[in-house]
Amino acid sequence: MPKVKFMTLARFIIEQERLHPEATGELSKLLHDLSLAAKVISLEVNKAGLADILGFTGDINVQGEEIKKLDIFAHRMLFNAMDHGGHLCVMASEEEEDIIHIPSKFRLGKYVLLFDPLDGSSNIDANISIGTIFSIYKRVTPDNCPGTLEDCLQQGVKQIAAGYIVYGSSTIMVYTAGDGVHSFTLDPSFGEFLLSQENIKTPKKGKIYSINEGNYLYWHPGLKKYIKWLQEEDITSERPYTSRYIGSMVADIHRNLLYGGIFMYPADSRNPNGKLRLMYECNPMSFILEKAGGRASNGKKRILEIKPDTLHQRTPIFIGSEEDVKMVEEFMAREEIEFNRA
């Protein structure tokens, strides 16, 4: 493994800023505030069983899912870390039905923050890796006015930064501001994120596929054929692939980002629009993977080009190594052609 220079997240952000004379420093401060929230959430995740954090609150979120106590803690921590910095005009969270306004006592900024405070939270009680996902846009409404829904409902291609934090055996923050994808690992001994990988490039083709095969019965016929194709033995195309599925999008995609492969959460006959959220999960992850040389699609169209209609819009997603995503798109398109001919 190549030696990585000793570099804190704060110093790295500052040095990246120097490469862009037009930078004002606001985005850097915003990313710093996010890293602070991540440190506190990481601390609570790591002591969750001891701090009586685990379990349900008894409430139901906007998605119709039971809310875990740690979900609420992570949501509140992100809001409290981000509301007063003067960098944001509005926020939106997977845990809130509507947009989140910046309190009137604080200065408004030019950025928009969307976040999933705790992705994979159904795995909390089983001590499986979970994470936080965030997405940053520039506002499209006039400055010095409260942000609106219009500011939040932007295509993913308009993101200026995105990232995620994995809370696992170690806490890792991965982000991109458009110039490369970078990874930082939290050193708990002195509470700093240290650069662990710079300019990550995902392999063009992998050998891992990640999908909940328990839903096989309900899939598109082209997807069924693709999965069977992956399981066949063929030396020239390096098959069969290995199946790896954690059930936490952050953890599954982080592994595939590093090793190559494809993560799939498709539509099916019971969920024709898929289940993952475009704004809070699919757009930021797609932005990161594309900046690392990967690809992200809903099976027919680039995820980042989808025009959102609602805050909690769902979409199918196929994301990962470029060649692997292209292959599943081909299988599904081929099946559509055969179906239309019939």
- Averaged pLDDT, please? 90
How would the global form be characterised? globular
Give the biggest beta sheet. 8 strands, mixed
| N/C terminus separation | 53 Å
Taking pLDDT < 50 over at least 5 consecutive residues as the criterion, the unreliable ranges are none
Strand order of the largest sheet: 4-3-5-6-7-8-9-10
Count of runs of 4 or more consecutive helical residues? 8
H/E series: HHEEHEEEEHEEEEEHEHEEHEEEH
| Name given to the CATH homologous superfamily of the largest domain | Fructose-1,6-Bisphosphatase, subunit A, domain 1
Q: Nearest-angstrom radius of gyration?
A: 20 Å
At the first level of CATH, what is the class of the largest domain? Alpha Beta
CATH topology of the largest domain: Fructose-1,6-Bisphosphatase, Chain A, domain 1
| Domain tally | 2
